[in-house]
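To: structure desk
From: M.T.
Subject: fold request, one chain
Message: Could you run this one when you get a chance? Sequence is below, nothing fancy, just the single chain.
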Amino acid sequence: MTFLEIIEEIHRKDPGVTCGALVGSDGLTVEEWRGPGDDRDLPALCAEVVRFFREADRIAAENGLGAEEEVHLGGERAQVFAAENGLGAEEEVHLGGERAQVFIRKAAAEYFLVIVTDPATVPGKCRFLLRQAARRVREML
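Reply: Done. Structure tokens follow.
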């Protein structure tokens, strides 16, 4: 299975997924997939969300919140959920807006999976599919 096939499989399991990418820690896309009609600037989005992921981790550390597990932004307000006792480093970010949702999951030390979905897509299902995909990516690297 290729990285592209992993992203396509997420879309097959949840048609609300409109595009996705495997991204290096430098923010550059390694592989990307787009659904029909998706015209987002995915490489630019990936560069920004990876930077955001790293910044959220820094903020949590500087404010004594512990190693971050999840960041969730909904609309105009942000909620930061710190990791519970020793859960490890930040693994996932979810951005929710009125036109789309973005899910970012750390797949390996230097790689992230990013998917963009319709706003009505169920976040829990996407997070589950990303966890599965991240395991497959780790096995391939």
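Reply (cont.): The longest helix spans residues 42-62. Let me know if you need anything else for the meeting.
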